[in-house]
Design goal:
The complex is a heterotrimer of chains A (215), B (675) and C (99). By secondary structure, chain A is mainly alpha-helical. Chain A has helices spanning 2-22, 26-46, 50-75, 90-109, 130-138, 142-163, 186-189, 198-201, 205-212. In chain B, α3 (89-112) runs parallel beside α15 (335-362), α6 (167-199) packs across α7 and α8 (220-237) runs parallel beside α13 (284-305). Chain B has helices at 3-24, 33-57, 89-112, 119-138, 142-160, 167-199, 204-214, 220-237, 245-248, 254-263, 268-275, 277-282, 284-305, 311-331, 335-362, 380-393, 400-415, 419-445, 451-459, 495-510, 522-527, 535-541, 546-573, 575-584, 586-593, 598-645, 652-674, and strands spanning 66-76, 79-87. Chain B is globular, with a radius of gyration of 30 Å. In chain B, 72% of the residues lie in helices and 3% in strands. Chain B contains 27 helices and 2 strands. Chain B folds into 2 domains: 142-594, no CATH class; 599-674. In chain B, 52% of the residues are buried. With 99 residues, chain C is mainly alpha-helical. Chain C has a single domain, classed as Orthogonal Bundle (Helix Hairpins). The radius of gyration of chain C is 17 Å and the shape is elongated. The chains are: A mainly alpha (215), B mainly alpha (675), C mainly alpha (99). Chains A and B meet through α4 of A and α27 of B.
Chain lengths: 215, 675, 99
């Protein structure tokens, strides 16, 4: 029974993953990821990590993915054009990752860690329960727990700053201010007059200028 | 006071004058104060030289060698370099000549460069020159000798190109300096051979003491060293083949020509050989080289002087010729005779140059004999000075040159053997000397009056041309800094010129009386302590028989009078003879007029190849190899950096790929490690 | 199933995520692939926690989830800001470097 479930969950996870990278429409990619996360939750359950599985579904699939859905619907799911103007890393990327997978498998399967080949250690009674997690979080891992909460605070502030409108909440989506009233970046503040930017020094400055248009 | 103290004072005064004029001269009140101060410095220096002479004479003849060291500069690596002066009869003799004639020339110069914008600079340079020359003659070891040698070369360069906006002058200065440097190299290399391969000490007295022990006679090292010293002497004294700079050096102001290129600097070579006489006694091969070169020069220069039209160049070639006599004499161990001629020559040659300066002033800057004529009545004093100097130069009986030149030739003849050839050539040179000297005098002073002479005689005004011009190329100039000033002066009107020329004239006329054969022998006696240990010298002094001496005196007189008469006939009575002669013997005339083609030869052999090499180095080597290397390195670095820059293109996915690749490689490495 | 299986699945998911980062051009999808990789890591952690029998791995996995959440917040904020400024949502076109 356990093995069957394992295979169902594993195949679901892998298919979801492949779906994320293969589907053109980003909205479909998000949905594929959600399915991947649910499969992963099942895998966690199979590994006796009940709390983490629940947290995975509630937090990850339930909150983070919803955030993703919001943003995808805001930004719009325009599909990517097939031709890329940058380096065509398609083939190379795949080969590289296949190679990486082979290498990791060799590392795992040829490992000297004999415990990998077992089912795992003998588990105590409260393994994976919220009680044990809570106890660990508040005793042994108190410091990471606090830091993590601080990190969440910082991320929240960052999000607010990034999404802030310049002229108050009721102003319409502002058109771009004229070039000379744009906020200066540090590089622009420190720019040496007549010295140009690194891009200009390798001859890229001119076409970038034309590209800018609405910058 | 001891002789060396006087000598230090004599040496320090010109230097003080130079520094004073250099730093303060411009701010002095009055128009010519810097000139008077320069003259005063040299005048006092002459007084100090006289003091040294008197102090020296106060000691017995055996005890007349003094040294004094001011500063021990370095004592390491086998070299002990001290600033030492050596005061003995020879150096005091030279000090007297140098400071005395220099003082008179400074006085003359106070007028000559009067309105020139470079007046102060002139006197600073001239004082510096006198200091360097005194340092040279007072040197007690090779170090101050070489220093003084180099300094006089530098002073000569600075004074030849004194009118530095004149291209001909600067070119002449460079030519003089380059040839001088060749001589300097010879001098230093000669020092190496003699000192470092032989005596081991830079000091003169030590070297002379050990030369017999260190070198067998005519040892190759010693001969090499002496010949290299001769190279230095020839370059400085303008002997063939290093003589081409002297005629060009006439670009400098006339007093400079008088001082440096007649009386003092060019005699440094003569002094050098006389000073180094123990070495030359031992290396007789080198001495013979010197004798032959001196003789060759005197003949060649005399032939060239016959066809020159620039009055200063005639006198310059005459200098070259007379120094040939001196070099011939001191190389043949007739030291006192050569130095005696140096003494008389300083007087009459400086006098001739000063008088030439006067007549050039009367011509408003024109120097060509073709344009001069009939100045006898307009410039009586100058004419008298020219006559005095010319008669002395031509060895007219009883003038100073007569006795000195005769002394040399008698001693040379007395040596016998192949020296008879030199004897004959010496008298041939004397005949030519009389001829060209009086050619110059008759053309300038006798004959129909040129318009400048007429204007001067009638109105007392010196003719002025509308524009200042270069006397050689007739290019137009102005009178600002770097060109001669607007003033032209003649001796008749300026008392400093008169005083200087008059004093020299007295010396030129009566100076020979200190060494008249069978009557007195002052120069010989005075210099005897210097050459007392010299067996060759004794032999040479007693060489000529009385009959030879008398025969020489008579022959000299005949030749001098004959030469003057011939010159009178050709250039006063029948000028057409000169023209006919020139046409009939065209090749000879061309040879003489083009200075035996030495300049053209050197141009073809040294200057043009040098310039070609320089141009090649500049255009090809510099541009292709050096710039190629430098710019090539730059391009390689640029290319490399543009390759590396390609990695920073801003593509996120490339960065990610590189990250993953790195991760994979690290994992691979760990994997392989663990197996 | 032994622990090794879970680890291999984790490696596979990680490599799929990496391939996605290299191949896709939309920053949104790249962030999703990053999530994949993080999740692969989580799976490995939980597997090892099961192997050793302690709960440390699970705590670690929870913290990783927290970090992933923060990263997503900021990343999506940037994408929204890009969209607001009418910049192309394409990492190949967003390559202008400062200075």
């Amino acid at each position: 029974m356990e093995d069957v479930l394992f295979f169902i969950a594993a195949i679901g996870a892998v298919v979801g993953a492949i779906g994320v990278i293969a589907l053109r429409n980003p909205f479909y990619s998000v949905l594929a990821l959600v399915s991947h996360l649910l499969s992963l939750a099942l895998l966690f359950l199979l590994l006796e990590a009940q709390f983490v599985a629940a947290a995975q579904i509630v937090v990850y699939a339930g909150a983070v993915m919803v955030l993703y859905v919001f943003v995808v619907s805001y930004v719009g799911g325009q599909g990517e054009p097939l031709a890329s103007i940058g380096p065509g890393l398609g083939g190379v990327g795949l080969v590289l990752c296949i190679g990486l997978f082979v290498e990791l498998s060799i590392a795992i399967l040829g490992s000297g860690l004999h415990a990998i080949d077992t089912d795992g250690a003998k588990l105590g009674p409260g393994f994976g329960t919220p009680g044990q997690i809570g106890q660990l979080l508040l005793t042994k891992f108190l410091f990471p727990f606090e830091i993590a909460s601080f990190l969440l605070l910082v991320a929240a502030v960052g999000a607010v700053v990034l999404a802030r409108r310049r002229r108050g909440i009721d102003a319409p989506d502002e058109p771009l201010p004229p070039r000379d009233r744009l906020e200066l970046t540090a590089a622009e503040v420190m720019r040496i007059p007549r010295a140009g930017s690194q891009a200009e020094s390798i001859g890229l400055g001119q076409e970038e200028k034309e590209e800018r248009g609405g910058w | 006071m001891s002789p060396t103290t006087w000598a230090w004072i004599c040496l320090a005064l010109p230097l003080a004058g130079c520094l004073f004029n250099a730093f303060v001269g411009r701010h002095l009140p009055g128009e010519r104060t810097a000139g008077w101060i320069g003259t005063l410095a040299i005048g006092l220096s002459f007084v100090a030289a006289v003091g040294a002479f008197v102090a020296l004479m106060g000691h017995s003849p055996d005890d007349r060698t003094f040294t004094s060291t001011a500063w021990d500069y370095a004592d390491s690596v086998g070299v002990n370099a001290k600033l030492t002066i050596l005061i003995d009869p020879l150096s005091v003799y030279m000090m007297l000549v140098v400071s005395g004639v220099s003082a008179l020339i400074h006085l003359y110069s106070c007028v000559y460069v009067w309105k020139d914008r470079g007046f102060v600079r002139y006197f600073a340079y001239l004082n510096f020159f006198v200091f360097s020359m005194l340092l040279l003659v007072m040197a007690g070891n090779f170090v101050p000798l070489i220093i003084g040698w180099a300094f006089v070369g530098a002073a000569s360069y600075m004074l030849i190109s004194f009118w530095f906006r004149r291209t001909t002058a600067t070119r002449a200065g460079i030519k003089a300096f380059v040839i001088n440097v060749i001589g300097d190299v010879g001098l230093v290399l000669g020092t190496y051979f003699i000192v470092f391969r032989g005596s081991g000490s830079l000091d003169f007295l030590d070297t002379f003491k050990h030369v017999q022990a260190a070198f067998p006679p005519n040892d190759s090292d010693l001969v090499a060293g002496c010949i290299l010293l001769l190279v230095g002497a020839f370059a400085k004294s303008a002997q063939v083949p290093l003589h081409t700079w002297l005629p060009d050096a006439m670009e400098g102001p006339t007093p400079v020509s008088a001082l440096i290129h007649a009386a003092t600097m060019v005699t440094a070579g003569v002094y050098l050989i006389a000073r180094m006489h123990p070495l030359f006694e031992d290396a007789t091969a080198a001495a013979d080289v010197g004798t032959v070169v001196g003789c060759a020069t005197l003949v060649i220069a005399a032939t060239i002087a016959l066809s020159q039209t620039d009055i200063k160049r005639v006198i310059a070639y005459s200098t070259m010729s007379q120094i040939g006599y001196m070099i011939m004499a001191v190389s043949a161990s007739a030291y006192a005779a050569g130095l005696f001629h140096l003494f008389t020559h300083a007087f009459f040659k400086a006098l001739l140059f000063m008088a030439a300066g006067s007549i050039i002033g009367a011509m408003g800057g024109e120097q060509s004999l073709d344009k001069m004529g009939g100045f006898r009545r307009a410039l009586p004093f100058t004419f008298a000075c020219f006559l005095a100097g010319g008669l002395a130069l031509s060895a007219f009986p009883l003038f100073s040159g007569y006795f000195s030149k005769d002394d040399i030739l008698a001693l040379i003849g007395g040596e016998g053997g192949w020296h008879w050839i030199l004897y004959v050539l010496g008298y041939l040179g004397a005949f030519l000397t009389a001829l060209y000297t009086f050619r110059m005098i008759f053309r300038a002073f006798l004959g129909p009056e040129c318009k400048e002479a007429r204007e001067l005689r009638e109105t007392g005004h010196i003719a002025h041309h509308e524009h200042p011009f270069n006397p050689e190329t007739y290019e137009e100039e102005d009178t600002d800094v770097g060109f001669p000033g607007p003033g032209h002066y003649i001796a008749e009107q300026q008392w400093p010129m008169k005083v200087a020329m008059g004093t020299l004239a007295i010396g030129a006329i009566f100076g020979g009386l200190i060494q008249v054969p069978f009557v007195d022998d002052l120069v010989n006696v005075y210099l005897r302590p210097d050459f007392v240990n010299d067996p060759t010298y004794e032999k040479v002094i007693n060489g000529p028989s009385d009959g030879l001496v008398i025969f020489g005196l008579i022959l000299s007189a005949v030749i001098a009078i004959g030469g003057i008469a011939l010159a009178y006939v050709i250039w006063v009575r029948r000028p057409s003879i000169a023209v006919a002669f020139r046409e009939r013997f065209r090749p000879l005339y061309e040879l003489s007029f083009h200075k035996w083609w030495f300049d053209e030869l050197y141009d073809a052999v040294f200057v043009r190849p040098g310039a070609t090499v320089g141009r090649w180095a500049s255009n090809v080597f510099e541009r292709v190899v050096i710039d190629g290397l430098v710019n090539g390195t730059v391009s390689v670095v640029r290319a490399g950096s543009s390759v590396v820059r390609g990695a920073q293109d801003g593509f996120l996915r490339v960065y990610a790929a590189l990250l993953l690749l790195g991760l994979a490689l690290v994992a691979l490495w760990f994997l392989l490690q663990s197996t | 199933m032994t622990v090794a299986w879970y680890l291999v699945v984790s490696a596979l998911i990680f490599c799929v995520g990496a391939a996605g980062v290299l191949v896709r051009r939309s920053p949104l999808v790249i962030l999703l692939c990053l999530e994949l990789m993080l999740n692969a890591g989580n799976l490995a952690l939980i597997a090892f926690s099961r192997m050793t029998g302690t709960g440390d791995g699970q705590i670690f996995a929870i913290i990783v989830m927290v970090v992933a959440a923060c990263e997503v917040v900021v990343g999506l904020g940037i994408i929204v800001a890009l969209y607001r400024r009418r910049l192309p949502i394409d990492v190949d076109q967003l390559r202008r470097l400062h200075g």
